[in-house]
Amino acid sequence: MASKPGILTNWPWKPLGSFKWVILTPWIVHSTYSFIVNDPKKRDLGYFLIFPYMLVRMLHDQIWITLSRHRTAKGKSRIVDKAIEFEQVDRESNWDDQILFNGILFYIGHNLLPEASQMPLWRLDGVVITALLHAGPVEFLYYWLHRALHHHFLYSRYHSHHHSSIVTEPITSVIHPFAEHIAYFLLFAIPLYSTVVTRTASIASYAGYLAYIDFMNNLGHCNFEFIPKSIFSTLPFLKYIMYTPSFHSLHHTQFRTNYSLFMPIYDYIYGTMDNTTDRTYETSLKREEISADVVHLTHLTTPESIFHLRLGFASLASKPQSSTWYLYLMWPFTLSSVLVTWFYGQTFLIERNVFKMLNLQSWVIPRFHVQYLFKWQSETLNKLIQDAILQAEASKAKVLSLGLSNQANSLNKYGELYIKRFPELKIKIVDGSSLVVAIVLNSIPKEASEVLLCGKPNKVSYAIATALCERGTKVTTMYKDEYDDLELRLSNECKKNLVFPGSYTAKIWLVGDECNEAEQKKAQKESLFIPVSQFPPKKLRKDCYYQSTPAMIAPPSLVNVDSCEVL
């Protein structure tokens, strides 16, 4: 929001929330119906394609978002090396408003202008006119409009909203108040309207011009430099008609320079070119990929978890382990992604965080939790994890933490397999279990006299039970195998605190995997269930308490237990 919001700041459909796209329903229905029932010679392809092309533009923007966030995490060729705040992500969540706005205007324009009907697929003269009108009037008028928007009166009421984002993302390019978008559309309508009234417009000129605007907008705000220097060395004049990401990034950090839209020529003419433009461009190109100090190696959980990655949709990433109705419509894509990852896929970087002087990265094994349940997948999974460890070693990371199923005892014995295979490894492989043990122990009152161990035991539960016995708390188990394993870990003095067979009178339960409903029903009222597994047990008792611990928080990319242990 601008510092002093002016009139027409908010979008008219803001009260509709996520249902704003319903506005287009009458036009979508009418254009589709007309295209189907009309005689082939009378079908208006341009009218019919308005909505599909809007979806294509949204896909194009989303690809840029994902690419930018991935490159930001890697750090290579990054321009402004600062973090993006959550407030900015929330503020820019309405980036599709301008596409909706364009769609409404195109539908209205088609119905009001007879010349807009029956546009051909291609006309060379229309493409040339569009290019010339953009390079001339559009770029020139935008330059002066942009400078006017930086006047304190308009800046405080409108343009400051856009400049709230110092570190830009591709979608920052379209985050403006509604009034600004009206002005921008009037500018971009110059070539569009001119070609329509002169009957030189075509579907290609319209679609191509919009694609050019979207591409250049996203390019200028992506915050990583990738335009090769050789292009400007071979064709020096390009620097006047094509800007770079670093060129426009300087406008967001310096504010009073580099006003041009996509063609810097007007900044050269009127003396507003930033003096550090060339130096920033070259410095950004040379910036190396950031090496991680700590790597957290996680994996996908459910098939729908691909939509919760931070590389994708921010609205979904902010609500992990949740589902919405429109995700069911994505099942063809979801299923295809499962099949692809089943047979092919390499570990990829999903996010980077900085904690004081430590660089923390989260890497994802492209496999789903269900795939870890099949023994015949073990060799493939271990190979992927092993390759990730060696890659982290090569990048000089100091610590790699194994998340969730990547540390399963049945798979690699909590990482022990890789340490034995590569005894010369300098990187430390951890699983975060010591932190979980500490948190669970601190959550159990010291005056507690008895704790019951329930469910399938694991490394964490054994460590907790051992520590409890050593501090004098009775640990009850109902299974002989567990009792025998625990007894081997205890000193003779502590063995007296291990009880088998016990009873279900304990008020504190350590719940592991496979603790079934029948066992939970045997607990006393107001008992406390503390999960010590990767996934929480079902809450089957309303008269008992269920505590959350880091052992069962997922996905680990959101709560990085192992990295916290290192810190």
From TrEMBL:
The keyword tRNA-binding appears for this protein: no
GO CC terms in record: membrane
Pfam families reported in the protein's UniProt record: CER1-like_C, FA_hydroxylase
Major localization listed first in the record, in broad terms: membrane
Subcellular location: Membrane
Every Fatty acid hydroxylase domain range: 136-272
GO MF term list: iron ion binding; monooxygenase activity
InterPro entries named among the record's database cross-references: CER1-like_C, Fatty_acid_hydroxylase, Sterol_Desaturase_Related
All copies of domain Very-long-chain aldehyde decarbonylase CER1-like C-terminal, residue ranges: 451-566
Bilayer topology annotation: Multi-pass membrane protein
Record-level GO BP terms: lipid biosynthetic process
Keywords linked to the UniProt accession: Membrane, Monooxygenase, Oxidoreductase, Transmembrane, Transmembrane helix
Assigned protein family: Belongs to the sterol desaturase family.
Name assigned to this protein: Methylsterol monooxygenase
Source organism: Vigna unguiculata (Cowpea)
